[in-house]
Amino acid sequence: VRCEESRWLVVVENSSSIYLSVVVIKYEFIRRAGQKYFVSFKERGSFSKAVDFCSQQGLQLALPQNEEENNALTQVFGEGDKTAWISINNRKAQGNFAVDLKNQPLVFTKWAEGQPDRSVQDTGCTMLTENGFWTVTQECSLQAYIICQL
């Protein structure tokens, strides 16, 4: 059961055929795009903190698979810095940044002009910007929004 309107996310886990456990988490940001949910406490952190945080929640760092999902992610932005980390592995694959953190090929991209910046090589991290475009930065310690997906 997921309740988007009240900003509560309820996950029901079937731990056995007899017992059900319910986890209730109140997120500051919940958006549904198709069958996917994006959630955030609207906190900022480094790229490694973002990956670790989502993993600790049993989720994955967000990665839009189409324009609808990409647009949903930009709705997290408030005042100040308007960037969010996305789950792209910047190891070069056939000359470009083409795989996610699970080494799966990207099915959708929205690179800003001049991106991905190949001079960054495999040391960079990828951000979603407020206009919906993706950029690569070597500054993986920058404080950007952390958005997870389920």
From TrEMBL:
Signal peptide: none
Gene Ontology molecular function: carbohydrate binding; growth factor activity
Residue intervals of the C-type lectin domain: 32-149
Keywords: Lectin, Secreted, Signal
One example of a Gene Ontology biological process annotation: ossification
Pfam family, one: Lectin_C
GO terms under cellular component: extracellular space
Cellular compartments annotated: Secreted
Record has Signal as a keyword: yes
Keyword Transport: no
Family annotation (PROSITE patterns): C_TYPE_LECTIN_2
Annotated protein name in UniProt: C-type lectin domain-containing protein
